Amino acid sequence: MKHCSLQSSFSNIVPFRYFIPVYCFHKCLVTQPRHRIGVAIGDQILDLSVIKSLFRGPVLSNHQDVFDQPTLNAFMGLGYEAWRETRRSLQQLLSANETTLRDDVSLRSRAFFHQSSAMMHLPAEIGDYTDFYSSRDHATNVGIMFRGKENALMPNWLRLPVGYHGRASSIVVSGTPIRRPSGQMRPDQSKPPVFGQSKQLDIELEMAFFVGGGNRLGEPIPIERAHQHIFGMVLMNDWSARDIQAWEYVPLGPFLGKNFGTTISPWVVPMEALLPFADIDLVYMYWTMKQQLSHHTVNGCNVRPGDLLASGTISGPDPDSFGSMLELSWKGSKTVDLGGGETRTFLKDGDEVTLTGYCEGNGYRVGFGPCAGTILPAL
């Protein structure tokens, strides 16, 4: 099995991360395992369902049951003030001078366990998924390949965040294998299209954010309040069949070349933890998350807790910062050296791709968790 790895860096500090595990340590082998909400504390996990009664703030005191749920949707739906309150409560409970957890051996034994004993699952029930196209360098590179340098960016690109509605049902958690898709394509423009398995299977290095509090149909989210509706971020790989995509996307955009699988990391880094470091080092993004969300709802479109909005491929101006094989191989015209004598233009069956990202503080890092998938042969 071949292994390809891309890395995305973020110069921020994240004190904790929300995620959904199934607890599969030894106790669960003889009981009924269930999805639970937890927080990463170093290499440990804090089970929020065990300590839910300790959340006694003005919002959460009446909504402690959200930490018993199998996904984050109910918690995200409580809104901005609940997220802030949760963060403050956790900081207090985990502080060095707080005795509630520190001195209660029985409570600690039930509330903490090692990350290696957990199985990760999708952090939310994703109702809708939208993918944007927000990296100017990526859009320019792709435009040059398909339309030429003089017409690289379409006329609307600098005026609004271009995006398309994807398929939420095929979003999977890191570690889920991805089946090579088949479809119609036209590799030889002088001949009719053909049906077959994709020969140009690609990756897209992206970030995505979960919508927290939604909006009513017909009521846009103004950009001044957009941050109150953005819960947290994950890493994402928007797998793409470039040969299928190139033939089908005119005039309505991506379809079968995209919706066969999209991978996200199981960790959700809450925006409340990122607020002191709001300028996440995605230096190649032209459109921000707040602009994306506001534009998405400017016509009155309603979004709901658990909806996922993605950045689009994150690429920079040189090959070291490209976020797709399409760009690294420049549409298959050159090979990408993986080391050890291995090269690629696009992905082969058996290849495993792992995207990683981290937040960096003074002398330490906190990762987003892996975003990985292995390519299975087409059926």
From TrEMBL:
Query: Which pathway is it part of?
Result: Amino-acid degradation; L-phenylalanine degradation; acetoacetate and fumarate from L-phenylalanine: step 6/6
Against SUPFAM superfamilies, the record matches this protein to: FAH (SSF56529), Fumarylacetoacetate hydrolase, FAH, N-terminal domain (SSF63433)
The UniProt record lists the EC number as: 3.7.1.2
Family annotation (Gene3D superfamilies): Fumarylacetoacetase, N-terminal domain, Fumarylacetoacetase-like, C-terminal domain
Reaction(s) catalysed by this chain, per the record, are: 4-fumarylacetoacetate + H2O = acetoacetate + fumarate + H(+)
Please give the InterPro entries that the UniProt record associates with this protein.
Answer: Fumarylacetoacetase, Fumarylacetoacetase-like_C, Fumarylacetoacetase_C_sf, Fumarylacetoacetase_N, Fumarylacetoacetase_N_sf
Q: Where does Ca(2+) bind?
A: 131, 204, 206, 238
Q: What keywords are annotated for this sequence in UniProt?
A: Calcium, Hydrolase, Magnesium, Metal-binding, Phenylalanine catabolism, Tyrosine catabolism
List the transmembrane segments.
none
Kindly provide the name given to this protein in its UniProt entry: Fumarylacetoacetase
What species is this protein from? Salmo trutta
**Native organism taxonomy:** Eukaryota, Metazoa, Chordata, Craniata, Vertebrata
